[in-house]
Amino acid sequence: RRLCILKGIYPHEPKHKKKVNKGSTAPRTFYLLKDIKFLLHEPIVNKFREYKVFVRKLRKAYGKSEWNTVDRLKDNKPSYKLDHIVKERYPTFTDALRDLDDALSMCFLFSTFPRTGKCHVQTIQLCRRLSVEFLNYVIASRSLRKVFLSIKGIYYQAEVLGQPVTWITPYAFAHDHPTDVDYRVMATFTEFYTTLLGFVNFRLYHSLNLLYPPKIDGQADVELKPAEGMEYAMDSESYLEKLSALSASLARVVAPTHEDEVEMDEFPVEGETAEQMDVRKKEQEAVENHKKLFEGLRFFLNREVPREPLAFVIRCFGGQVSWDKSLCIGATYDVSDPSITHQIVDRPRVEKQIVGRYYLQPQWVFDSVNAKMCVPVADYFPGVLLPPHLSPFVTEQEGDYIPPEKLKLLAMQRGENPGEMRLREEESEEEEEEDEEDDNEKEEEEEEDESEKEEEMKLKKMEEQKTQSNKALPVKVTAGKVRLEDKQRLEQEQQSEEKRLAIMMMKKREKYLYKKIMFGKKRKVREANKLAAKRKAHDTAVKEEKKKSK
Amino acid sequence: MGRRSRGPPRRAQPFQGAESEEVTDSEEESVYSGLEESGSDSSEEEEEEEDEGSDGSSPPPTRTPRKSKTLEDESALEGNEALLAQNEYEEDSSDEEDIRNTVGNIPMEWYQDFPHIGYNLDGKKIYKPIRNKDELDMFLEKMENPDYWRTIQDKMTGADIKLTDEQVELVQRLQRGQFGDVHFNPYEPAVDFFTHEVMIHPVTNRPADKRSFIPSLIEKEKVSKLVHAIKMGWIKPRKPKDDTPTYYDLWAHEDPNSILGRHKMHVPAPKMKLPGHEESYNPPPEYLLSEEEKLAWEQQEPAERKLNFVPQQYRCLRAVPAYPRFIHERFERCLDLYLCPRQRKMRVNVDPEDLIPKLPKPRDLQPFPTTQALIYRGHTSLVRCLSISPTGQWLVSGSDDGTVRFWEVCTARCMKTLPVGGVVKSVAWNPNPTICLVAICVNQSVLLVNPCLGDKLLYGATDHLLESYEAPEEERIQPVQWVTANVEEHSKGIRLLIQHSKALKQVTWHGKGDYLASVVTDNSNMQVLIHQTSKRWSQNPFRKSKGLVQCVLFHPIRPYFFVATQRYVRVYNLLKQELTKKLMANCKWVSSMAIHPGGDNIICGSYDSKLAWFDLDLSTRPYQLLRHHKKALRSVAFHKHYPLFASGSDDGTVIVCHGMVYNDLLQNPLLVPVKVLKGHVQTLDLGVLDVIFHPTQPWVFSSGADGTVRLYT
Q: Compositional bias of type Basic and acidic residues: which residue ranges (chain A) (predicted)?
């Protein structure tokens, strides 16, 4: 089993289940014979056997309390390496990147495990190290694209060398370890994943001309030294922690030449029109802008917000971040620093407010990242009811339900609505004037209503289109203008009938397929309609409540 | 006093030779034992010892009163002297008697409850001294006896012993941590025999052993063993620590084409599904589950759930708890990775519109009937059968109400009603335009009726033709009886009756209008009969029954005869009197059959709602099976001139299809459904019972279970 995990062997579904299973249809798992033979030739099998013998010998020696033998055996503990398996499973680097999702998620999970029980401390430490290294790489390369706070954990998506890599980290709480989970299986996976991630990290660091194992940039190091010299006696211990503080940039092998953005040489690809080029250029620009989202902003994290994810995200987009010195090492500036522009707060209200900075809830950071722009801060003041946090991973296709917030966001991305700038200006004064805030809210509400109405209209239209295109359904006639529509309707009817007749002529198999597809489409529409209806009901309920309160 | 004089030598004895003297004096033993066991003895003694202990620790304050007390009580001491002496003698005597306890070194508490305290050398019990002191006595003694503090109880004998001054002093010295012997000097000057400094003389003058000059044999043996082991390679030198870096550029020389044999079939693991809006910690309100949905979610099996979590909303990030099933999910992912069979699934990514076959537009295939034009009402029960005159002017319909009605097509007027006194199973108008004759199946007979409609010349000629029949000389044996209608019947229009032995099912004319075939519901070889009207002569073409015959047909041009049984259609050549072909209809129960006017194509309707198109030139299997109807097909019909065919079904619809047959043999017939005609109401689960085309116009008639006949134009 361990071998299968390490070598990535998985069962296959036979083409003729009955034939393979000697006539019975009982569910069984089938491995390819070739795969099993392939496993037999693996050199690591011998290593495993050696290890087994070693364990047996050791146990015997312990039983007889022959400590010399124990020492000798421990000295000669057989070890094995998984390098060749990694290379074999991922012949190219891109292959490895493609499969990095699970490796990262697993490493992040293991790095949050307690140091006792469940698995070896070394594994946990290694996982922690590797994951921190990877985070540092993402910061250095600014390749983070999307973040999503879900109820399960925090999803990140980075684009590493053109490959989207998604991983999830749990919230920083102690796990209640379930009993029905086989930790040995997980540990075996982790063993492989750590090896893989180590090599990937190495390669990634080198691709950025960074030192591996990572070293913190000289200047920053000097700055940090005096502060934490007292608390941290062991240099080697503090190293990882400093690294995990994610605050300092990493040392480069080659000193970074001063931000010379190498202009992309434009090789006109044949068969590509100028328009396409333009589109591509624009896209690239957008990505560059996204990377510099928080450039020039200075953040301060209050102690109640999750430090690591926020620091990571902010640093990924070029922002500077600091936190309370007692919280973690690596704090670069203090709360009272006047140059702080945003303070991330997760309390119902802040007692002492310093003028000249925004006090925001952490969701602002994540929403801004996902929106690829700094979203208006008004919705995110402490104590304010937050707007819904949407998943950036959903790409709405035609006919899907799109929540109104998303529509608003999309509209904002397309072109800033004129009111926004005004709003922003007002927000700085808002701390004193609450009335204004209310006004703003009202405005926003109105906007929302409008957008909702629009959206409803759109939805309706879409539905209509759906029904029209869905000729299997009888066409509904809207009231009024019957005369005018008659011709159209007739035509439609004729068309629908034609289609129906054509459907009749379909072959059996195709008909089945067609019906299935249509069923799926209908279900989708149904679900979207359901969501829309729910939203509408909710909105009306909220409005009524507001009216009552007024 | 004597004791005092005797004391010192006795004291000196144990200290100097305690280890050599095996048999100790009982008194001394008692002293030591008393001292030693002071910590764990009876409460009374303990108290005293504690007193003493405290004395030892802080001598000055307590000692002085004690001492003064002793001084004061000196006289009392002297008074007690006698008693003491007595005691002493007692002890002495006991010493002499040698009542030594033989119990050994055991906790004396074991004897607490016994009257004796052990056994002497003779095995006799040593009894405890009679002690009848109660608490009060004890207290009094404590108060009065000045030597109480130095009185202890001998554990072994149970007797009270008063310590002498020397003994007390010894105790005190020991408590102070000094040596018991007064004369022992612990600080004698050290003589450094084995000093670290190298002396010129040895400490001992013993000469060195010989073995210190010669090599050790045992060592040699051991070394040679090791050498041998090394030589043989049994012992390996310790491996140097591997100090190569754990991570290096693994993909330094990557070859994009290096795909192992195994990886050809490799299916990379699918990525995990990305989260949607509903997984957010603060989702839009519509994604939250309502109460019913939540309940439904809980009742579902975990494997069936669409979401493996309940969407929840938290006001702020601070309130978000840890997800309890996080490890579970990772573990399940692990299991999926190594235990789930992977399979490449071809996801059909087609536009459903593309699946719809490109057919010529029905508009281009006109003319065909599109709308319901006329309804012929009059029948009171289901109209089973229809037939139209070859001119297309008259329509005849037979119904379950026992009548046959003649209609004028254009006006929907019922021209004539002919009660026949039975369910009309089938009607057939003679296709010969010069003869005006209708064959009607009622019960067991075929009625040949002259409807007397249209051109008077024509139907007069028909009557004439029928009357001109002369019976042949010799009577031939016929399977049926030909009966000429009587006067009453004649006035109705009935001209001839062909009486069968069993109930009839269907009647059909040959194209020329002379022959007609009838089908009897029978299982014998007499099912199909062919009659010749002009000669009033019938014959049975088949020697053997090949199954239940559903319907029969004449080929319009050639001398072929089609017989449809439940599953097959047999084609007989009437001239050669042989079976030409056997068509397999691929359906369960053929209900009806029609032949293309060209004669090369047949359609068969069946009760399992299929319509099979046979191309006689191609094969014996259907060229195409059309499943247009939702219910059983009752009848099918071809148009005489237009490339149209229609099928009527129990679902109340008539589907008109364009069925183009090309003269070019290479081109397959083109079948396009062009119109679904609705109008008939379903009654008794029956819809359309018969369909027939107008002989010249692209019109279709249908008769239904609702008692109407409809015309679509």
A: 455-466, 482-497, 538-550
